[in-house]
Amino acid sequence: MEVCMKTMRRFALVGIVVFLALSLGTCGAGPADGDEGSNALVWTDYEIMLSPDGLGQITLYLPPEGMDENTQPGPDTYGVAVPKSRMLNQNIARRSYDYLEAIFIGTGANVIARTSWEIGQPAGIRGVERDIDYGNGGNAIICVGRKISNGLGTLLAIGTVTAVGIPAGTTPLATPTTIPPHAISVTFTVSGIRTEVGYDFTLDDPLSSFGESFLTSTGGDAAAGGFLEAPNVARTVSGLATFKGGATYTMFALPGFDKRGTTITANPFKVYAEYAFTLTDAGTNTAAAIGITFADLKVWDVGTTPPSPTAPFEIEERLALYRTMGQKFDVNEANLDTATTVGLSTRTGSYYSNAANASFYPVIPLEFSIVKESQGVFAFTFRTSVYALSNASATNGGPEAVRWYVGVAHGEDRYVLDDRKSAAGMVLMGVNISALDWLEIIVTWITPPPGP
Fold it and tell me: Minimal CA–CA distance to 420: which of 12, 53, 107?
């Protein structure tokens, strides 16, 4: 019997540039006089310009200092006139993200200016300490994602300050990321958070590209304790799993209990794995060179006991779903493995800390616990809670910090297998598949499974 497999992909929000106000602006839109229809000009205090792949800009226009905050954009006040049809870009943007948060930390962390908003609502920030360089990360960040509820979202991208806008005719800034008293805007360059798990089914030849976001130690030498070695590409056993309707995904192999060798005597015994998040690059500039870093995200202090919904790290093993022929189906074509478990690993050499307020480390060390009853197919998903720079109360009257989830996918897509063509994110595992008496999945191992 042959086996088929699946891939995991991540959020595709890349290189968005955001111009943030330095005083609170009122978002409003009104028709320009004398214009009708889709070509009518509408006054607004923001523009969204996004291409289908997520590249683009978000520009916020600010009322002049001293202007009443209830003043609406218009030809005699502030803002920009755009064709009414362009406002539809707002709906396109919502397909990718709908929730944003920006934070600036001033001298000695005593000044915390924060704002969060949804697409279509007013955006902007006030109370930002001036004459401070906010570039290269560490004291300013923007988070972009999907809203779950008020103050809670799924994080899709992060960004750092790369430029500051000043009035025309004023002296150019000596440092382009220092915010002077007369600044009128600040520009964040944003990088999408992504993963590339398994084979790329967006390609004509999926096997020509194998993502390295999820790796295991399954292919290690069991006799030498290889399952306990660091995961890498060479030790990752993977293949193609094909279900009804030809839906094909990446499957990752785990050995059966009888494959543990003589060196490993523990019951259960461990097989190590890693799941890595990366940041997209903007052209020739790497995220690191721009100053965008995961270190600006901190682990949220909300408890330590998964699977509580308030725990900082949540891992779920469950029956997976897959999409085909316009519908979702349970993976019931093989025995469901309910014995194998997955959790955070403390393997020597791994760097993830689940401690409250620790910097988020994007390489998640995992370990699978294999017991005698381990056999069949299952999938897992995970997410962890983080905040941007500080979760202390803002000093500018802004909202409390957003609790962001970093994980394999958003919403229900967390429980759907991903072929790197969609936003889904569950990882499909096959445990001792070759020993199954009943399997209605076509499985083709690209690297041989462990054992005969």
Answer: 12
